Amino acid sequence: MEPLFYLFSGFRWQDALDILLNSYVLFRLYVLFRGTNVIRALLTICVLWVAGQAAVSLGLIITNWAMQGIITVAALVIIIVFRNEISSVFQTKDLKSFLWGIPRHQFHTPLNIIADSVWALAQKKIGALIVLPLKQGLASVVQGGISLDGKLSQELLVSAFWPDNPIHDGAIVIQGDRIISAGVILPLSKRKDLPSFFGTRHRAASGLTELTDALVIVVSEERGKVTLFKENQVYDIRNRLALEKLLQDHAGDDSTKKGVRHQTIELITAGLISLFCITGIWLSFSRGMETLATHEIPVEFINPDQKMEIISSSASNIKLLISGAKPLINAIKPEQINIKLNLSQSVVGVNKLSVTKANILLPPGIRLKKIEPSELDITLDTLIKKELPIQPNWMGKLPMGVVMKEAKAIPKTVRVIGGSLALKDISTIFTKQISLDNLTESGTATVDLVLNPASLKLENKNKIQIHYLISKKPVL
């Protein structure tokens, strides 16, 4: 649990938003490209990236370098080879389908209408080529065709293959209950084991099923026979019921509750995998770019007793060693870090206070490594008032021939506020130094008092007047 706690220590709400947003983007890419060759190529790149990261952790420098090169080349190959599939996805007109819609493959497909139409075409010996794509897309393997997006009906399906119709030689693609395109050209099979009586339609059907998971129905124009192609399987259809049963077996699962449940499980799994992958990338970046920094932060004392004051502290600043992602470390300002020590339980005299993580406030995503010093000696004292006499602090010597007869301070005493410990041994308060060197006659000097220690305060002004009386020495 401790390593896991360390990995997610300093986790911010911004990190959660970052992970969720990118996880959704990855999930949407899966939804848009699922069933296509693009998604399989992207999965291959992901495997290569994981292998590269493993190589880094094992210290395999050349292997990691090779993986990076392969990934770069593979990304360019995907863009070039699968440009048609990528283009078809990003040309989506419906914003809902692009951002949050979930396409339902062959949901609610009226298989009875397809069976009736195919059997009607077979009885009239009208050639037909009908494609039902399942999970994999067709954009990268088919060519030509015109977009119809018409409601599936027996009349429309039969009329599309009528001999006088200019699109009757191509294939029709059915998605759900819609005919999405007609006159589509399919890739021809290169298999050598197909029967000799199979014509171009049969070879085109076999060619498509070799490249995708689509189901293709062929009606022979010469023989009036119905053939169904699925992957490497070829099914000769004897009657209409057999055709509908095969359609139900291969293309009907997704129109049932079982198919809906299967797709829901698939999408939930894809979402969880996306979340796991993005979280792994976040951990890789946040820990891989981790750096150290040192900051000296002043200590703030809170909840002091109003009757006491701080006389001294063993340190006024605390040195903190912190770590985190390099961008976060570089963005830290000193005012974003606070150290607060609670004095509510302190007593008069010396108090030893420990500085812990609980006393330190750090920005999100930053971790504390070291505290120096980790303990402070704080001296507290009770505030009292004491009346002290003022003593002028003379320095130097009077000029020759003069003598100071009297010197007095106005006022004679001052009231000093300070800690009882500090004032205990103080009986007199001195002024700042007053030079005697240039005093030749009586006068008044305005001086400041010296407060030692500096924590002492005067109740009134600290400007004091010193009246001094100077006279000449009598001549003997």
From TrEMBL:
Its EC number is 2.7.7.85. One of its GO terms (molecular function) is diadenylate cyclase activity. InterPro entries: CdaA (IPR034701), DisA (IPR050338), DNA_integrity_DisA_N_sf (IPR036888), DNA_integrity_scan_DisA_N (IPR003390), YbbR (IPR012505). The chain crosses the membrane at residues 12-31, 38-56, 62-82, 267-285. PROSITE patterns: DAC. It catalyses: 2 ATP = 3',3'-c-di-AMP + 2 diphosphate. Residues 92-240 form the DAC domain. GO terms for biological process: cAMP biosynthetic process. It comes from the Bacteria. Keywords: ATP-binding, Cell inner membrane, Cell membrane, Membrane, Nucleotide-binding, Nucleotidyltransferase, Transferase, Transmembrane, Transmembrane helix. Pfam families: DAC (PF02457), YbbR (PF07949). Belongs to the adenylate cyclase family. DacA/CdaA subfamily. Probably a homodimer. Catalyzes the condensation of 2 ATP molecules into cyclic di-AMP (c-di-AMP), a second messenger used to regulate differing processes in different bacteria. This is Diadenylate cyclase. The gene is dacA.
